[in-house]
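Re-running MoxR-like ATPase to confirm reproducibility after the cluster update. Everything else is unchanged from the original entry.
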Amino acid sequence: MTEAKDLVAEIEALEAKLAQAKTAITKRFIGQERVVELTLSAMLCGGHAILIGLPGLGKTRLVETLSTVMGLNGNRVQFTPDLMPADILGSEVLETGADGSRAFKFIPGPIFCQLLMADEINRASPRTQSALLQAMQEKVVTVAGENRPLGAPFHVLATQNPIEQEGTYPLPEAQLDRFLVQIDVAYPDRKTERDILLATTGLVEEEAHQVFDPDSLVAAQRLLRRMPVGDAVVEMILDLVRAFRPSDPSSGERVRDTVAWGPGPRAAQALMMTVRARALLQGRLAPSPEDVLNMARPVLTHRMALTFSARARGEDLGALIDDVAVGMMRSEAAA
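Result of re-run:
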């Protein structure tokens, strides 16, 4: 009983701290509460996020603000076609000492940080993109045969431009699966854009202030894993993920006709973590089926692919996910 009370007290304290962080971020990244919530969810889960949006929508500003608010050591890498793996990971150089002796010295690359912004990640070659795979999954990189651990915590926030696809390299499915969530950054509405104009074109701009530090963020990630999840939510996560696998008996005719391949077990793990994070950010002690519905699209979209005929028909994966998730909720409510 005492342990449960302690857990509730810890969760409530974290909720208050997260509310401060959200307020600090939205003062500089105005009117995109959904984007801020998803990005914070990814960091609470210890995962990575890919932000997809047109130029000039504030993706870089968001990552810079997050670095300050969360108290993390951040680096930014502009991905280009000529970027090499060593430009990200680092390399060994031959160094001559004062006594004439020679030895190899490792020069760490920008990946040795706690928050890496991979700007326009799809502009780099597959060879360079693959250099991130080990880092994103295992939080370690291998250079010159030696495993070198990265900072703790370690997060990658990548950006991708949905236009100007000439000269880009689509991210392989294995790398996309390493991103906990896909975050679509849309145009702001008129009122929000007016607020942005007034806030960013004057003599003084709002400054971000630190709320978290690396240790408190790691502690929050551990606390998140202790958050209870009801059986109904667990079953809904399993039902939803399996419903998008064309080979699964539970998938409907529309899914089998539309989806080429569906999400794997990592998608279920991601949903399990992100629904907890959303509950925390909403000030609740446990996730609900509504959290599963809310997080389904950002968690599943990049882990699925349309068939050729579905692409030709102009089908949309996001709309399919929403329809199936809403239908599932209605069925369970009726039962």
